Model the fold of this input.
Amino acid sequence: MRPTPLNRRSFLSSVIGTGVALPVAAAGRRTQESTSLSRPLVVTSKTNRLVREEITTTAWDLMRAGGPAMDAAERATNISEQDPRDATVGYGGDPNEDGFLQLDACVMNGADNNNIGAVAALENIKTPSSVARLVMDRTDHWLLVGRGALRFAKMHGFKEDDLLTDQARQHWLEWKETLSNRDYYFPPRDPSEPVGGTINVLTLDRNGDIAGATSTVGHHFKLVGRVGDSPIIGAGLYVDNAVGAAGATGHGEECVKNCGSFFVVEQMRSGMTPQEACEAFCRRVSQQNNGRPMFNLKLVALDKQGRYGCCSLRGREVRDGSQFSGSSAGLGFAVHDAQGHRTEAGAAVLPALTQAELDALPWR
Done:
């Protein structure tokens, strides 16, 4: 959250590899296709049970009181960024390969002519989305990175903090200890499971204006200086105030290659619902990877009419005790409208990543 208020400028195969489009698994999908107008509306990719309700409620309450969509998206994203129980965003997130955090974020404001702002590889600041907001509101630039982003944040009153918590440090040490069988580290006795989830917050306010924010620590233990899709407008986030908004989580490099969020918004412009547009993007990525992508992507979207949707490539298998249940995790999303806060099951275009497949992947 910014320290002081400031003035603001006025997107398969039924058998993997065949290349034929899969019917989308809808696991409990509810009324995303409803044509009833819902304002205000909040949609987020974040499903961490410790923070998800506070995120959506914060944004919805602000807009219900007449606040703008951009303020709601930023403030809701700050909830996740400042909560150390969320290992994928902001303070308490898992670090890069050298043990420190470099944060990425972007914002986009439909009410301000689809204005944009972003930061990448920002260190020592808990709320990168708020710094991105300042880049948008107070400069003629759209992206600041590294030391320049930090200097800009400090100039506007942000205080530096140590973002590495004891739990995140333990995750990093566990990763170091399992890098190789030929080193001097012992493996952890009880390795922790990383919790996935860049945050996207998409908002539609009472006036019909749309905004979005995306924030992340990036891949767990990434190379120093790596930047993914989250701060890239048209990849991690895209808003068009006349159409809708979309945000992406998952393997960012693949999302950048395919302009994920821009693709979804453009499909909505062409007449698709948010759900159809998210599914179309996931099918596209699957086909480009021979129907067998060894990664996941998740897209969330809403449109001007108050409809919304969510689709993932694969998700991951759910372990039920010592056995796998056959169901998928990582497909859900959260919504807040006049019916209140709730989580909903998203769709997937492919079967879940198996444990064997997950074991062959880098720690993400």
